[in-house]
Amino acid sequence: MAGSNPAAFLLENPTKLYRDCLRLADFLAKKQGFPREALRAQVTAPWRRNQHETDPETIMRQREAAVRGLSNYMMYEACLLYTSDAADDTPCVDLGG
Fold first, then answer.
1. Please, what's the largest Cα pairwise distance for the chain?
2. What does the DSSP 8-state code read for residue 62?
3. I need a surface site. Which of 30, 47, 89, 91 has the fewest CB within 10 A?
């Protein structure tokens, strides 16, 4: 299970996933100067709205979306580090734009 998907640990531990999303919201609030409570509310709202969901497929899709959000931000930060260290200004990921 955990070996087949690198994010399996987070997918199987929704409390950890939720807390990681809140930590990212706190980090972004501090880094970008946004109101902390506004960003936390954006994270909390979908979790509360779907807290009574019982369909396993829907629950897994929602967890996967949360993991994608975390991993997309990590990829973004990695690209910033990569391009700041590189001699040229070419982006490390082609976003299709």
1. 51
2. H
3. 89
Nearest C-alpha neighbor of 1 from the set 58, 72, 10: 10
**Sign of the torsion formed by the C-alpha atoms of 39, 43, 44 and 45:** positive
pTM for the whole structure: 0.71
Alpha carbon 71 to chain centroid, angstroms? 5
> What is the arithmetic mean of pLDDT over 76-92?
68
Q: How far apart are CA 90 and CA 7, in angstroms?
A: 29
CA angle 78, 79, 83 (to 5 degrees): 120
The CA distance from 39 to 35, in Å, is 7
- Neighbouring residues of 22: CB distance < 8 A, sequence distance ≥ 6: 40, 43, 44
Query: What is the structure's pLDDT at 2?
Result: 46
Task: Please give the full DSSP string across 32-53, using - where no structure is assigned.
Answer: HT--HHHHHHHHHHHHHHTTT-
